[in-house]
Amino acid sequence: MIDAISFSNDTLHYLDQRYLLLREEYVSTKSHQEAIEAIKTLAVRGAPLIGVAAAYTIILGINSFKGSKEEFPLFFKTLIADVEASRPTAVNLFFASARLKQVYDDNFATDTIDVLFAKMNEAAKKIHLDEIANCDLMSRHGVDQIKIDLADILKKRKLNVLTHCNTGTLACCGTGSALGVIRLAWQEGLIERVITSESRPLLQGLRLTAWELQHDGIPFVSISDSSSAFLMQRGMIDFGIVGADRIAANGDTANKIGTCAHAISAYHHNLPFYIAAPVSTIDITIPDGTHIPIEERNADELRTIFGTQVAMPDTPVLNYAFDVTPGKFLRGIITDKKAVVGNYVEELKTLFGQ
Ligand SMILES: CSC[C@@H](O)[C@@H](O)C(=O)COP(=O)(O)O
User: Fold this and answer.
1) Residue identifier of the C-alpha nearest atom 11 of ligand 1
2) Is 114 an annotated catalytic residue?
3) Could you read off the pLDDT of 272-324 as tens digits, one per residue?
4) How far is the CA of 165 from the centre of ligand 1 (A)?
5) Which residue ranges form the domains of the chain, and what is each CATH number?
6) Cα(140)–Cα(124) distance, rounded to whole angstroms?
7) Residues with beta carbon inside 6 Å of ligand 1?
8) What ipTM was reported for this prediction?
9) More exposed terminus of the chain, fewer Cβ within 10 Å: N or C?
């Protein structure tokens, strides 16, 4: 499997996803500032991977600390604020920083700095290992749900699945969230073909998902983002499955811009549309999608394609990185704990023991 991120010898190693497929470039850094820049520029990307990268970035930051124990609280507060300011929508980033803050809160008063840092290191590694394990759990729950929901078609033939953006190894560390489900469904003989929508402007679907599918020998075809309704109308898509950057308590889901249009089209055509995401992507503190901060990115991402100007340099642009799909358009939310279908307000709470 592709190693999108790893941490060894106090060094963060990652595959720079901005240049795939033009070049496969691995970067190693001990600098937390460089790691923050990697998150901001989407060199590392995808909600679970952003969470893992954020945890290791905090470790790089504390490793660079040279002051006394008394000076650490202010340093740590600034470090956390800098990491949290890197990308606003993927809640996994805040999940990771909250975990490390908890280790700090629980141990700072009693531990030496060295012991505290060792505990934080362990916590960061655990976030990483948990996300890998989550992929396998989501995949199992997702495939089981698909077998139930699409049983009638599966008696006759295999399925054509639509996915958007990239939710595979590159985004999740393990086999993936939505792409993990697709991989297992393929291994179990349920999939005819995967349809990957390009995911303008940064083309995560066209570049990254296609690359991962090719790597695994899974048949796929890529489409422009605006093609999905037409393909559904023609019976060329049986269901959709995507990842998430933040899920509100009522199931409203932020994911890569373009997801909402796919989900509404699927709903119109009576096709199941699923979200696959680990529980670390659910923000149970917000009641609905209106509370999800939506990242707006640089206008030049839209005006240019890989550095080539494709619009007037002063073309006014709205470049929202994510949209919010209302929960009512979703057939289910596949998590590592279980597949949640039905009443999201009641069901999602139970994942948090509420
Ligand atoms: C499992 S990844 C889920 C999402 O993070 C993914 O679909 C997505 O929107 C990624 O956006 P990106 O801007 O590439 O970080």
Assistant:
1) 46
2) no
3) 999 999 999 999 999 999 999 999 999 999 999 988 999 999 999 999 999 99
4) 6
5) 5-131 (1.20.120.420), 139-350 (3.40.50.10470)
6) 25
7) 42, 45-48, 90, 165, 167, 171-172, 177, 204, 242-245, 255-256, 321
8) 0.98
9) C
